[in-house]
Amino acid sequence: MIVPCLAATTLAAQAATPAPPTRFGIADLDRLADVAEPDLSADGAALVYSVSTVNRAEDLAQTDLWRVGFDGSARKRLTNTPKSSESRPLWSPDGKSIAYLSDAPPPRKPEVGKEGEGRDDEEEEEISQVWLMPAAGGAARRVTSFASGVDDYVWSPDGKRVAVIVRDPERPAGVPEPKNPPPIVTTRYQFKEDGTGYLDGRRTHLYVVDIATGRAEQITSGDHDELLPAWSPDGKLIAYVSKRGVDPDRHLNYDIYVVEPRAGASERQLTTFPGSDLDPYWETRPSWSPDSSRIAYLQSGEDKWIYYAPWQLAVVDVASGKARLVAPIDRCVTKPHWSPDGRHLYALVERSRVTLVEKIDADSGERAELTHGNRFDYDLAVSGNDRVVVLGGDDAHPYEISAVEPQGLRALTDHNAFLRQRTLASVEPIAFRSDGIDVEGLLVKPVGYQPGKRYPTILRIHGGPVYQFSHEFMADWQVYAAQGYAVVAVNPRGSSGRGFDFARAIYADWGNVDVKDVVAGVEHVIGMGIADPQRLGLGGWSYGGILTNAVIARDTRFKAAISGAGASNMYAMYGHDQYVREYTLELGTPWKDREQYDRASYPFLHADRITTPTMFQCAQDDFNVPCLGAEQMYQALRAQNVPTQLVVYPGQNHQLTVPSYLSDRLTRNLAWYDRYLKETP
């Protein structure tokens, strides 16, 4: 017989014992929280940020706002809206309010004589507008009511207005929506864009909105777009980015303009470099110095080099327009913020496999590293009293926010604490020679790795092509490693983090030296005694899919491949995806530069050399790398009876966002690799 009190004591002891860690699995994708968009109050006392989590019932990612003190206290969720999302939180200059973007419908307004009845929220179209809430949280009110919503915004220094970026409306005010959509008519050189759709004559322009009344004034107009507004600290000017000229779609010559915040004011072009001055792709806005005399921004190379040239930190004098590079280092720099004294700039600096926060002297360019080690920092914020926070992570930790202090980082958020109950695979740097060149990458050993034992191995290939694998948390790698796979992630020539010459080595020559480099990475891990040469797979998304196709067309050793959002017939992609400008700059045109297009289309034109069982995946509404690329390669392999499969994700753009689709993709990937790398043929 068990004594009751003893049984209770035993159960209590068992409950107090933490459960042993388990391996990371596909189901954990739905538990990951995506922390982003940190903003410090002017006095540095508190931080507001956004957190995206999976709403399983609605099968969508939902974003809410959070607040935490700089001392780490009073962490609080500010919004909890299951059917809408809040993003881009910004403190008001006086610290009493928080503005943000939300796609929530406006508050119900009962009709006269029908108390308690109002519009059906379910029928409201989800369009982002600027909202305002008290700094401590609570009831919010909608500030803007643009028919096409608000794309971006910033506060005025006095806190009485916001500058917003708004796309021209589809139809004039008061004109009802037609029963069926009207025909799409365009004369634009670039006529489509992923996430936006077909591009017509509508453009995005700058407006100023009064916070109290909601009254809006249009500041800019014309056949061009304005983006990335930034209000000067003295309140006199708004800076923004725009491409101008006879046909802005044909070039990448972005420039910074300034204008007074009033209707009818004349714009002034500030930068004149004949290349990209603050391309929006870099997710960085103009940064005003505290005295409003200078603007820090990013400058790239001439148009010819598209995304291959590193983005350099530059400063322009607002009065004279004289610009200079602050610290030319042949590496990409992003997200510059001025120190309150105007003597330094805080920025993110990319190096091989890491991106770290640095403090850069605005005059001398002298640099000091503020974050250290194998990590990837993605964003930062600076307060008016020189407090700094960074959004970043590493191999075992998704992005969280930390205070940057002399003694090191101090964590302020912890939204992925459940990972402490997961056994994660180790990630280590690797380096090897390929074709006489030093190449680097990362190796993930299987959970429970035993020295001397060989494992089925997956080569992962990154997108871009000018991008790199870094020391950041990669959920799919952890799933593969938990299931007994080694993962090899190579940064071949064409990757960022190693300078201009390393990146442009694949310019107009895709699928050549980068194929050699990724294959050399696999051979290196075979030589380490880890990878089983008879059980090799590979895969990637976007350029990772493009390069996957190139590898299997040139090397038959791989037993399974997964090509996501890839393409191999560049003749067909010309005019079908969103990159007509980039194709013309790098490859030329199909009717004049056949040799270039033949070389870029090698996997499709030589598909008869492919023997690797390959799954092709794509997103139905992707205008970045449309499904045509996957469909053609699937058809080519199907015609030759090579084992293949085509998977199309409905209604998705280039980056999948539906949680069930993300889980489905990884589940299918794992099953495909298991079938060809683990099961007995």
Query: Mind telling me which CATH architecture of the domain at 423-678 this is?
Result: 3-Layer(aba) Sandwich
**How are strands sequenced across the largest beta sheet?**
34-35-37-36-38-39-40-41
Q: Give me the secondary-structure category.
A: alpha+beta
Instruction: Report the CATH superfamily of the domain at 423-678.
Output: Alpha/Beta hydrolase fold, catalytic domain
- Count the DSSP helices: 11
Beta percentage is 25-35%
DSSP strand tally: 41
CATH class of the domain at 423-678: Alpha Beta
- Spatial extent as radius of gyration: 26 Å
Gap between N and C termini? 55 Å
* Low-pLDDT segments, ≥5 res: 1-15, 111-124
The coarse silhouette is globular
Structure description:
The structure is a single chain. This protein is 16% helix and 34% strand. By secondary structure, the chain is an alpha+beta fold. Among the domains are: 33-103 and 126-135; 423-678, Alpha/Beta hydrolase fold, catalytic domain (Rossmann fold), CATH 3.40.50.1820. The chain has an 8-stranded mixed sheet with strand order 34-35-37-36-38-39-40-41, with helices on both faces. A hairpin with a 5-residue loop joins β10 and β11. It is globular and about 70 Å long.
Structure keywords:
41 strands; 681 residues; hydrolase; Peptidase_S9_cat; signal; five-stranded antiparallel beta sheet; Rossmann fold; alpha+beta; disordered N terminus; 16% helix
Topology diagram in text:
Layout: H1 4-16, E1 22-23, E2 34-40, E3 46-55, E4 60-69, E5 76-77, E6 86-91, E7 97-102, E8 129-134, E9 141-142, E10 152-155, E11 161-167, E12 192-193, E13 197-198, E14 204-210, E15 216-218, E16 226-231, E17 238-243, E18 254-259, E19 268-269, E20 275-277, E21 287-288, E22 294-302, E23 312-317, E24 323-325, E25 333-338, E26 344-351, E27 354-361, E28 367-369, E29 376-382, E30 388-394, E31 397-405, E32 408-411, E33 422-423, E34 427-434, E35 437-444, E36 455-461, H2 475-482, E37 486-491, H3 500-503, H4 513-527, E38 531-541, H5 543-554, E39 560-564, H6 570-573, H7 580-586, H8 594-600, H9 602-605, E40 614-619, H10 627-639, E41 644-649, H11 659-678
Parallel strand pairs: 1-33, 36-37, 36-38, 38-39, 39-40, 40-41
Antiparallel strand pairs: 2-3, 3-4, 4-5, 6-7, 7-8, 8-9, 10-11, 11-14, 12-13, 14-15, 16-17, 17-18, 18-19, 20-22, 21-22, 22-23, 23-24, 25-26, 26-27, 27-28, 29-30, 30-31, 31-32, 34-35, 35-37
